[in-house]
Amino acid sequence: MIYISDYELKPRKKDGRLHVVNRGTEPVCPICGRILQYRDERSRVYKREVGERNVLYVRRLYCRYCKTYHVELPDFLEKNRQYTV
Ligand SMILES: [Zn+2]
After folding, report:
1. What angle do CA 1, 73, 42 make, to 5 degrees?
2. Distance 68 CA to ligand 1 centre (A)
3. What pTM value is reported for the model?
4. Which is it for strands 7-11 and 2-4: parallel, antiparallel or unpaired?
5. 13 Cα to the center of ligand 1, angstroms
6. What letter would DSSP give residue 1?
7. Rounded to whole angstroms, how far apart are CA atoms 38 and 50?
8. What span, in angstroms and rounded, lies between the C-alpha atoms of 39 and 68?
9. Which of 34, 35, 49, 57 sits a CA distance of 20 to 30 A from 66?
10. Tens of pLDDT along 4-39?
11. Residue extents of the structural domains in the chain
């Protein structure tokens, strides 16, 4: 997993669901340090308040050198990690 701090939450064009748009530099692989490639988007359920349930689409990135996938998450999910599924 990779946490990013420079992002926007925007509705997707195709279905209007919120996704994370990285506004900073392209994320690099935490194993080898090379730039990751976009693979697809995955839904992620999270809560910001008790009883609240939200779905956010996050990017799944691929390192072709390590052959591993890394999910890119906004940093507010790191602070609320216990609530994420
Ligand atoms: Zn790598």
Report:
1. 90
2. 7
3. 0.83
4. unpaired
5. 30
6. -
7. 32
8. 11
9. 57
10. 999 999 999 999 999 999 999 999 999 999 999 999
11. 2-83
Q: Are 57 and 21 in contact (CB under 8 A)?
A: no
Phi-psi region of 67 (alpha: psi -120 to 50; beta: other; left: phi over 0): left
Give residue 55 CA to ligand 1 midpoint distance, Å: 28
Closest C-alpha to 55, from 10, 8, 19: 19
Give residues with Cβ within 8 angstroms of 68, minimum separation 6.
29, 31, 62
Q: Are 53 and 37 in contact (CB under 8 A)?
A: no
Q: Cα–Cα distance between 7 and 79 in angstroms, integer?
A: 15
